[in-house]
Amino acid sequence: MDFASLMNKELSKAKTTNDSSKKYLKRSEIEEERKTAYIAEQKALEEEREAKAAAKRKREEELATENAAREEKRRKLAEESRKLREEREEEEERARRKRLGLPELVKKKEEDEGQAVQDDVPEEELREKLREIGHPVMLFGESHAAKLRRYRKLTTVMSKGPIPTTLALVEEKDMKVDGTVPADRDGRKWLFRQLASYFTMVLTEYERTMEEEKSETSAGKTAYSAMVQTRENMKPLFRKFESNDVDDSLLVPVVQIVQALQERRYVDANDDYLRLSIGKAAWPIGVTMVGIHERSAREKLHNGEKGHVMGDEVTRKILQSIKRCLTFAQVRWPPTDLRQLMG
């Protein structure tokens, strides 16, 4: 072997060694590795976040279920307490009325319940109607009956006047009552609309007159305050008209009073008011006897002749407001027969 071949052999060894020991990476390869590592890290973080969120949702659902069960239990207890309280109050009211000689409470008739069922709205239709008016289709823990009440409350149109009411008021030509109380439900509804319309007309004129005559004097302020008090005290009567919850022992005399007012028979209307408020018993005011023993004749004088003025505070204020409307009506619409003008 000559010197040239030995040199070539050594040079080839050195070249192979240098090629195998040389290591380098391109910038694109480094960037690709960094991107892959970043994506893997983000994926792991995302999976961890999703696991935590799923665990949180599960805990929230469990808490919501527990709260719903607790609220349902509380609602049932409250409903039972309310029923017991209403039964106790009804029993006390029945005993009080019996003690005072007032007529017994009239329970709601089955036809009222049938009417409530008849006025029901199917669930799907009710949901669509709530969506149309832009309100949620269901609130948390809301039953179908509560949803129906909420819809009716949202869609109820109140009339404009001194006392806003859900009753559809009639025109003046249709306000005339015949002095009788219908037995059917539709007839009573029409009667309540007539009465509400008439009292609204009287209160409107009453308010307008007091506004015009309002002054800084003491008498003017007193008259205006009486008008405001009359308007406020008549609101419970309108609520009774709306709910068809007026006892016949009160409704019949009120209809007779309104009929007399519409016919401008103010003396007769005042007589009906006195019979309604204090009754027809002998010696209605003050001492009725001076002895210490009750006589059978005295008992017969008072049987069935109790007035409504002492029944309860709300009824007393209603009757007082009707009397003020009567007094104003004879000034606003004077009678053609002067004998029907109260002194």
UniProtKB/TrEMBL annotation:
Residues 20-35, 47-87 have a biased composition (Basic and acidic residues). One of its GO terms (biological process) is generation of catalytic spliceosome for second transesterification step. The keyword Nucleus applies. InterPro entries: Prp18, PRP4-like, PRP4-like_sf, PRPF18. It comes from Metarhizium anisopliae BRIP 53293. Signal peptide: none annotated. The lineage of its organism: Eukaryota, Fungi, Dikarya, Ascomycota, Pezizomycotina. Keywords: mRNA processing, mRNA splicing, Nucleus, Spliceosome. Residues 1-35, 47-97 are annotated as: Disordered. Belongs to the PRP18 family. This is Pre-mRNA-splicing factor 18. SUPFAM superfamilies: Functional domain of the splicing factor Prp18, PRP4-like.
